[in-house]
Write a structure and sequence with these properties.
The chain is an alpha+beta fold. The chain has a domain of 168 residues. The chain contains 6 helices and 8 strands; from the N terminus they run ααβαβααββββββα. The strands form 2 sheets. Strands 1, 2, 3, 6, 7 and 8 form a 6-stranded mixed β-sheet that branches. Strands 4-5 form a two-stranded antiparallel ribbon. It is elongated. Bound molecules: calcium ion (CA) (2 copies).
Length: 269
């Protein structure tokens, strides 16, 4: 009598595949892919948003550092630098200051101040990229016959008489044309008093923001000189609410802050 035992076979009786053997059906595969797509989509959007937040933050810090560098330059040289022109490779124009060639529509003079990161031509670039449109802009007041950019001009003029005139409005619609009744300058663009964030700025430093390469023609951004703005450069700038139509990032140096540093450095009074 043979007590043979049938060899163990895998699988279920009748040869039907087990769950592990049969794999996924097309329907199951479709469901898995759908879930993966949902997960990826949910991750990708925050990633691009995170990059924007990082670029914005990097630019804000850069602008703040640039403002500090301006003050350091003023303490060391007894004047502010002129903006660089589009052809001066990041060097102030003219070299040595005085009457600036582009007081209201120039670039931050990174080569003169000694700041990085710069592009291949020597211009400071913001956190959004390294194209020409990403170059950091800089404007300086021409008040008191260019006293701020002339060596010892601030001392010669005197703290009380010195009246820096760059204005920052909170909206492009509030940038007005002369004639006006506000002091100190009644001959150039100014901010309506109800929309004025500053009126004694010595210098303005700004980035064209994320839309630099394609935007910049909106009612607000057009007042901050950029390749697509149609408004002539003037002393009024706009710092509107960040949004679809305005993403410029702008900081300014006030008269009080600069004078404080100059006095501390023994340059004034
Ligand atoms: Ca912009
Ligand atoms: Ca303007």
């Amino acid at each position: 009598m043979n007590d043979t035992v049938a060899p163990a076979t895998e699988g279920s009786p009748c040869g039907a595949p087990t769950l592990a053997q049969r794999g996924f059906t097309l329907v199951e595969l479709a469901i898995v892919m759908f879930i993966v797509a949902l997960l990826l989509g949910g991750m990708l959007l925050p990633l691009s948003a995170q990059q924007d937040v990082r670029s914005y933050g990097d630019t804000q810090k850069l602008l703040s550092d640039a403002r500090d560098a301006l003050q350091g330059f003023a303490m060391a040289n007894d004047r502010l630098p002129c903006p660089a022109s589009a052809a001066s490779n990041g060097v102030e124009s003219p070299v040595g200051g005085g009457v600036c060639t582009n007081p209201h529509d120039g670039f931050f003079p990174a080569a003169t101040v000694g700041m990085a990161p710069v592009d291949g031509s020597g211009y400071l670039v913001d956190g959004w990229g390294s194209d020409i449109d990403n170059r950091v802009r800089y404007a300086v007041s021409t008040a008191n016959t260019n006293a701020l950019t002339t060596v010892s001009g601030m001392k010669t003029t005197g703290i009380t008489a010195l009246l820096p005139d760059l204005e920052i409005c909170n909206s492009g619609a509030q940038v007005r044309i002369p004639p006006v009744i506000t002091a100190p300058d009644t001959t150039t663009m100014y901010c309506h008093p109800s929309a004025r964030l500053a009126q004694d700025a010595v210098a303005v430093i700004y980035s064209l923001g994320k839309n630099a390469g394609t935007g910049g023609a909106g009612a607000d951004e057009t007042h901050n000189p950029n390749p697509r703005s149609i408004t002539a450069a003037d002393r009024a700038f706009v710092n509107a609410q960040q949004g679809t139509n305005f993403d410029d990032q702008i900081v300014w140096l006030s008269k009080g802050t600069l004078l404080n540093r100059m006095v501390a450095a023994g340059r004034l009074p």
